[in-house]
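Can't attach files on this board, so I'm pasting raw text. These are the components:
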Amino acid sequence: MTALLDVRHLTKRFGGITAVDDCAFEVAAGTITALIGPNGSGKTTVFNLVTGYARADAGDIAFDGRVYTRPEPGTLCRRGLVRTFQQARVFPVLSVVENLVVGAVRPWWALATPRASKADRARADELMTDFGLSHVADLPASQLSYGQRKLLEFAAVLMSRPQLVLLDEPTAGVNPTMVSTMERHIRGRNAEGITFLVVEHDMNVVMRLCDPVIVLDHGAPIAQGAPATVQADPAVLDAYLGQ
Amino acid sequence: MTRFGVARGAVFVALLVSFPFVVHAHWVLNIAVFTLMYAGLASAWNLVGGYAGYPSLGHAAFFGAGAYLEAIWFHHHSIGSGYLPFVALPIVGLIVMVASVPVAWVAMRTRADVFAIVTITVLFMAQTLAFNLRSITGGSQGLGIHPPPFANAIFERPFYFAFAAILIVAAGITFLTSRSKVGLSLLAVRADEDKARGIGVHVTLAKLTGFSMSVWLTAMIGAVWAYYVSFVYPQFAVDPLITIAMVLMTFLGGRATLWGPILGAFILAPAQQYLAYTYGASRLYLLAYAAVFLLIMLFLPRGIIPSIADRQFARRRKARVDVAGSSTPGQVEQPVAS
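---
Top answer:
Structure tokens for the assembled complex are below.
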């Protein structure tokens, strides 16, 4: 398997604390890779470094054969790497359909074109049908439930037809029905060829959904492999339960 | 565009054009000229402060730059007088706009309160330059434009129509912006700039486009003002009060709406001018400004037009609930932001 994303020796220090310490791992194309670890192990910081929301002190990433020493969120998005946020960041003032249309990647001169082209609108309709958001299409996103906002954020990053999607806790804070809905969507999109890197706290979800699993502790991977292997790894048990 | 929107625009333009033919009193026309000036300024500010959510406090610098450029250009009668200074407006606007791009590019790397402070610094830098570049600006002595040769009976008319034309252009730009991807991108920037960047929105370009259009309009208005008052002094051409008026009027009418800044200017500008006439130049109206601002913040934090839209939205929703007995969110119409 080829590595779609290659994280190479990323390091990030906040003052005296090393949040991410010489962290290196690969995400193979076509997988749903999980990134897990105890609280404060640096998962979200790794996400921020990879997507350019924070600047690494050392190291770089390679995505789809290109090396990025200073990744920039907009550039990565246009090349096919997008992310979601833990808090379901959508644009509350925009309607659901506008939230989707705004995420359609277009060349710069398209700024002078109408808000939603026919193609964008069709793509948005397709996604809204898929994600069960059609009946709220024209409502401002501020009126949606938290679960619906999570779905909307997920749908919005798919507008740009990405190759790799980084999901930051896709099932945190939503009800059990929504958890299985989210799982179904991730699996469905994965079957269509999108690779996922998922930070997740719910171990049941991780075990059902992801392979391989990468375990982070103190900002560096301590184990990786199939879910069952990782679960039995003494180093992982040690990191989670302590001594 | 809805049929109602077209009708509203047509009526507005018709009233605007016919007004100076109906009213002849100079003092009323003078107030009207300043009202249109502020309506244009507020509409221009709205592109940056409203749509993009970048509260620029430096727009008076671009107003002043336009005023000085016009004054320097038409300082001598030999260059041209009469209607020529109006013809030159788009060029004056363009020059100031191009010059403002590096300023905007740096300033817009900061956010919110820092951006406000950076832009207000730009304002005071512009004023200091106007005071001190004596060979160009005449310093505190000011700079005269050859007085306009218009007949006394219709003296205000050319300026009235110049401001009206710029206002209509500003409204047109605002309308097209709100309907295009620039407007959508700017609203996304206002809501969550980092997120917008991460989903591939051309954030920097959208911000610079909004800012440039805003500066172009502001500089042209400054140039017309310079010709109208025919004498430019640093403390009046680059006046923080002009910035404050732009902000206040937009907040009163409603940010990121087409009619909000115009409505705000039509309420505040005549009131300000009237108070100035009645109580002399004692700047008592500044107290009124402060009071208005406090009232807006207390009762209409989102401005008049968005508040009305909210109320209509709630009423329509209630009406549907009453009729149907229950409401599904899909049937509810979205609030009208015109």
